[in-house]
Design goal:
Chain lengths: 120, 110
Amino acid sequence: QVQLQESGPGLVKPSETLSLTCTVSGASVSTIGYYWSWIRQPPGKGLEWIGYMYSSGSSDYNPSLRGRVVISLDKSKNQFSLKLGSVTAADTAVYYCARVTWPTKKFDFWGQGTLVTASP
Amino acid sequence: QSVLTQPPSVSAAPGQRVTISCSGSNSNIASNHVSWYQLVPGTAPKLLIYDNNKRPSDIPDRFSGSKSDTSATLGITGLQTGDEADYYCETWDDSLRAAVFGGGTKLTVL
C-alpha cells in the first residue's frame, strides 16, 4: 500500500522560507508515470494545488505561486520536498503531499497533512 | 473564489441519495477528466472518482460520478453516517495551466 507522510516545522516566520518533506513508502518516486505533488488548504477554505514534479526533473507550478515555490525530488531517500519563499500569514494552511498518476492526472494517494502557521 | 463551483453544503437522511454538483467552464471540466475526493479531518484525503466516472477498487459502488459539458456530479446512495465529510471536485484548467479544485461541499447525514 502506498503511503505518504509530511514532515517539517509547524511554525514559520513571515518573510522566511517554508520547507516540508514528504516521505513515500510502497512506491518509488523514480517510477515513470507518476508525478509528486503538494496541495494546501488554508483554514476554513478549499484546496489549492501548489505544483508537482516528475521523476525526470520536469515540474509545473500554480501560476499564483510561481516564483516563490520549488519542488524537488530526493530519489536516494524516496522523498520529495517543498520550499515556499517569502511566506506571509496567507500561506498558513494544512499542507498535503500526494501522488499523481499520469495520464489520468488523478491524485490517488495523499498524506494526512501537516499544519504550517506563518506567524512572528 | 474557486474556479470550480460547488454548493457549500448538502444534507440527507441515512439510506437516502444525495448529489453534489461541480460547475466549471470550457477550459476545465469540458476539456478534461474530473476527479472527486473525500476529506475527513485528521485523515488522508481519499480519491473517490477519477476519469469522470471510474472508481478505485476500494471505493464502493454507492459512489458514482458523471460529467456533461461544463458540469460534473458526484452521487452517493445508501447514505451512512460515516459518509459525513467534505467533498471536492478537481480537474485541470487549460487556460490557467493548473490543477483546480472546487470550493468543497460539506455533507451532513441527518
